[in-house]
Amino acid sequence: MKTLEISNTLAEVSKAVDFIREELRRKRIQQKERVRTVLLAEEVLAKMAEVSEEKISVSVSAFLGSAEIKISARGTAFSTDDIQKGLLIEETNLESEETNALIRQLLKKLFGDTFSIRNEYGINKISIRVKKSPLRSLLITLFALVAGVLTGLLIQKFLPEPAAKNISANLFTPIYTVFMNALKMIVAPLVFCSIASALADFSDLKALGRIAMKIVAMYLFTSMIAIGVGYITYQLLPIGHTSLVASVTDTANSTIAKGGGVTLSIKDTLVNIIPNNVITPFQKADMLQLIFMAVTLGLATASLSQKFPNIRNMLVMLNAVFSKITTVIVGFIPLIVFCAMAKMMLSIKLGHLLNVFVWVPVIYVGDILMICAYLLLLLIFARLNPFKFLGKYYPAMLSAYTLAASNPALPFSIKHCSEMGVSKRVYSFSLPLGATINMDGSCISLIITALFMAKIFSIPVTSHMLLTLFIAIMVLSVGSPGVPGGNLVCMTILLPQIGVPAEAVSLVMGLYPLVGMMQTSANVTGDAVVTTIVARQENLLDIEKYNA
Q1: CA 428 from chain center: how many Å?
Q2: What are phi and psi of 58, to 5 degrees?
Q3: Torsion-angle region of residue 117: left (phi > 0), alpha (psi -120 to 50) or beta?
Q4: Please, are residues 409 and 403 in contact by the beta-carbon 8 Å criterion?
Q5: Secondary structure element (H or E) that encloses residue 439, with its range
Q6: How far is CA 70 from each of CA 20, 73, 116, 511, rounded to the nearest angstrom?
Q7: What percent of the chain has pLDDT over 70?
Q8: Residue 483 gets which letter from DSSP?
Q9: Cα–Cα 20 to 30 A to 365, which of 10, 85, 101, 146?
C-alpha cells in the first residue's frame, strides 16, 4: 500500500490525482475503471480540500485482484449530496435541465456501492473500491470450509461424544439456523419483488412470453439430459450389493412421513400453482405460487405503467431494499460455511457408513459430468466461452455447495448472473423458476439411487422400470422442495414405484449431506447456464461484460 500526504490546495489536489492515476496503472487496473475512479477521486479530493483543516492522506492498496483508495483528513463533515450540488448548474432553462440530468446519470454511476463516506470524531474517511475480485471471497470461503471440516473432526476425535453433541447443539447449530432462517426470510420477498419489478419493465409482452417459453423448454431439456447422464454414470460405475439389505433400518420413518405431502401428479402440481390467498405462499415460501403471483403483478403493472408509473417505481424500490438486505446477510457466508461443515462432521459416523460410501463418489461423478454437459450447451446454443462462465460463476457454485439448498442459494446466483452481464429481465424470472422446477442434480441423484437400490434388492431393471423412473423423476424435479434434504423425501416416493421399500433410504440418509451439497451446486449451475443461453439468444447479455 502506498500513501501520499497533501495540503489542502488545488495544486496539491492535482498531485494526488496524478498519484492515484499512476498507482492504478501500476496495479494494472483497466483503463475504463481508471478513468471512472480518477474522475470520482478528483471531485472528492476537491471537496476534501475545501473542508479540511489539516493535511489530506491518500492511499492506494491492492490485494488478490482487489483495489481500493482511501482518503482521510480532519474537517467539516460532508456527503455525496454536497459534491453533487457543486457540479449541478443552478440555471433553470431547458438546456441546463438537460445538462443536469446527464450529470445526475454520471454521478449515479460514480457514487454507487463502490463509494462510502463517513465522519468519525471530526475526521472525514472516504473509501473508493476500484475493483473487487471474487478470488478474495472465494479463498476466505474455502478457508472457512476446510477449517470447519478440521474443527469437526478434531472435536469428534478428542472430545467425548456428549461434549461434542453439546458444542454442536449450542454453538454450531444455532448460528447455522439463524443464518438459514434469515435467508428463508428474505428469499420469498426478494423473489417476488425481483420478478414483479423486472416484468413491469417489459413493454413487449410477446417478447416476454417468448423468453418464458424458451426458459421452461430449456429447463425440461436439461432435466432429460440429467436423467440420461445419471443412467450412463451408473452403467459406467455400477454399485450395490445384496448384503446391504440387512443394514436397512426404520430410521427413515420421519422422512417417509414428509413424503406424504408430495405428489407425482402433473395435474395436481399445475393446479396448486394458483394460491387461494396471498399470505400463505410467503409463509410457506412456496416458490411456484410466489412466481405465479409475481408474474401476475408484474404483467398488470406493465400494462398500467403509463397510467400509474408510481406502481412500477414502488416495485423497483422494494426490490432494491430487499437486495440490500440480502447483500448484508450474504456477507456472513464464511462463518456459516464454517459452522455447517463442523456440524456435519460431528453428525456423520464415518465408520458406520463405509459400506455404502461408494454411493457418494458415483453421484459426484454424475454431477461433474452434468456440469461439463452444461458448458457444452453454452458453447453450442450461445456460442460463448464456457471457461469465462466458470471464471465468473464459480463463487455461486461454491456457495450453493455449502448451503446444500437451491432456494437459499438464489441470492448468490442472482448476484453473479448480474455480474456476468445477464439482463435483469431474464435472470429475475429464470433463476427463481429454476430453483423450483430445474433440479438436474437431484435428477442424477434420484436415478443413480434408484438403480443402486434395485441392485441391492435384486430387482431386475427393465425398459418398463426405466420409463417409470423417467416419468416419476421428471415430475419430482418440478415438485421437489428447494430445501436441505428435500431430495431424500423424493427418494421415499420414488423407490416404491420400482418395488423397493421406502425404508431403504435409511442406507444413505447419513451420507446425504455430502451428496446434497454437490447436487445443489449442479442445480444452480444449470439454472445459470439456461439463463445465460436465453439471454444471449434474446440479445439481453452484455457480451463485453461477459468476456471481461
Answers
A1: 12
A2: -125, 125
A3: beta
A4: yes
A5: none
A6: 10, 10, 10, 48
A7: 82
A8: S
A9: 146
| pLDDT tier for residue 224 given thresholds of 50, 70 and 90 | very high
Can you tell me the distance from the alpha carbon of 192 to that of 433, in angstroms, rounded to the nearest whole number? 11
Helix (H, G, I), strand (E, B) or coil at 45: helix
Cell of 162: 456428549
Report the DSSP pairing between strands 2-6 and 115-120.
Answer: unpaired
DSSP single-letter state for residue 243: G
Gap between the Cα atoms of 198 and 280, Å rounded:
23
Angle at alpha carbon of residue 154, lines to 150 and 160, rounded to 5°: 150
Q: Are 194 and 414 in contact (CB under 8 A)?
A: yes
What is the distance between the alpha carbons of residues 163 and 213, in angstroms, rounded to a whole number? 54
pLDDT digits (tens, 9 = 90+) for 375-404: 999 999 999 999 999 988 988 888 888 777
H or E segment to which residue 130 belongs: strand 123-131
Predicted confidence at residue 482, as pLDDT, reads 44
Pairing status of strand 66-74 against strand 115-120: unpaired
C-alpha torsion sign, points 497, 499, 501, 505: negative
Of 262, 413, 440, which is closest to residue 326 (Cα–Cα)? 413
Q: Which of 350, 320, 343, 482 is nearest to 404 (CA)?
A: 482
Backbone angles phi, psi at 457, to 5 degrees: -95, 15
pLDDT digits (tens, 9 = 90+) for 103-147: 555 555 555 556 777 888 888 888 877 766 656 666 777 788 889
Q: How far apart are CA 403 and CA 318, in angstroms?
A: 26
Rg (CA), the chain: 27
Does 255 score more than 60 pLDDT? no
